[in-house]
Write a structure and sequence with these properties.
This protein folds into two domains: 161 residues, Rossmann fold (3-Layer(aba) Sandwich), CATH 3.40.50.1970; 116 residues, Dehydroquinate synthase-like - alpha domain (Dehydroquinate synthase-like, alpha domain, Up-down Bundle), CATH 1.20.1090.10. Helix content is 40%, strand content 19%. The strands form three sheets. It has a seven-stranded mixed sheet, with helices on one face. The protein has a two-stranded antiparallel ribbon with strand order 7-8. It is globular, with a radius of gyration of 19 Å.
Length: 338
């Protein structure tokens, strides 16, 4: 599989995303020239090892969403202090989306901004979490409610890491990958894996370049995420992120149909891509109550004016505010339950 490179165009803060087999060996070439020491943030289960030519310290954080917290950020920041890290040095996040979110938020906070390089090891991380500068952690009241925008200095997507993932972890990535079908209509399934990953990254990079702070078109990257995040919290994260997004996208299609934004054929297309092409479940867990999901969706970051969703429609995927609870309830009732 060939090496590919995408640039996230942000003026003087532009950065490369390098995709391909073995690209982790390029780490030294993308470190900031000012860095004299590095702190690697990772997890015990991450099989990918990275080395720098400068002194480095490794900080290991816990596994699972229950560790995506402010307590973990404090732990990481105190390790930065012990390592003597300054704002000219570098943080390197090696792991999935949880790791890059934590490493990025910690880097954004340390000395009010320290460079970070991401080496995502999951498919979700490669095509979504590590790109675009959104970092954050969870509160009991909601997912990713505390964080910062902090663009990485570079991202290395080493596809060798994908061979270490379980089938379920790959499915989580497919949930995010399926999203890009609805944003662009690209025939991603005709591409090989590296090309498909690179295309997803390019789509996200183009959106981020146009709307870095998510005040407009970048919201479309949250397609399926409003119900998806609610499902993660409601099930105690027994449903993984990509799995919940897959369910959330079909729900969004049903909601768009209830609101007469799309027709039945478009709803069927969603199911063919999500279930048929990627083999993802689109059924709601049986023990999730509609009223609980409604309450969680109202706490979503996008809910500035009532229930707010990213929905398909005649102008493509876009943000829709003030959706009535009755429409949401009707859409939920059209979902399969398992």
């Amino acid at each position: 599989m060939s090496r590919q490179q995408v640039t996230v165009q942000l003026g003087v803060r532009s950065y490369p995303v390098i995709i391909g087999s073995g690209v982790r060996i390029e780490l030294n070439s993308v470190l900031p020239a000012t860095a004299r020491r590095a702190v690697i943030v990772t997890q015990q289960s991450i099989p990918l090892l990275v080395e720098t030519d400068i002194p480095q310290t490794t900080v290991v954080i816990g596994e699972g969403e229950q560790h995506k917290t402010l307590a973990t950020i404090e732990h990481v920041l105190r390790e930065f202090a012990r390592a003597g890290l300054n704002r000219n040095d570098v943080v390197v996040g090696v792991g999935g989306g949880l790791v890059t979110d934590v490493a990025g938020f910690a880097a954004a906070s340390w000395h009010r901004g320290t460079p970070v390089v991401h080496v995502p090891t999951s498919l979700v991380g490669m095509i979504d979490a590590a790109i675009g500068g959104k970092t954050g952690v969870n509160l009991p009241e909601g997912k990713n409610l505390v964080g910062a925008f902090w663009q990485p200095h570079a991202v290395l997507c080493d596809t060798d890491a994908l061979a270490t993932l379980s089938e379920r972890e790959l499915r989580c990535g497919y949930g995010e990958m399926a999203k890009y079908h609805f944003l662009t209509g690209d025939d991603l399934l005709s591409m090989d894996r590296t090309a498909r990953i690179a295309r997803c990254i390019q789509i996200k990079a183009d959106i981020v370049a146009n709307d870095e702070r998510e005040v407009g078109v970048r919201a479309m990257l949250n397609y399926g995420h409003t119900l998806g995040h609610a499902l993660e919290i409601a099930t105690g994260f027994e449903i993984a992120h990509g799995e919940s997004v897959a369910i959330g996208m079909l729900f969004a299609a049903h909601l768009a149909r209830v609101l007469e934004r799309i027709d039945d054929a478009r709803v069927d297309y969603h199911k063919r891509v999500i279930s048929g092409a990627y083999g993802l479940s689109t059924a709601l867990p049986q023990d999730c109550r509609s009223e609980d999901l409604m309450s969680l969706m109202l706490s979503d970051k996008k809910a500035l004016r009532g229930l707010t969703f990213v929905l398909d429609g005649p102008n493509g995927v876009e943000l829709v505010a003030d959706v009535s609870p009755a429409a949401v309830t009707q859409a939920l009732s059209r979902m399969e339950v398992r």
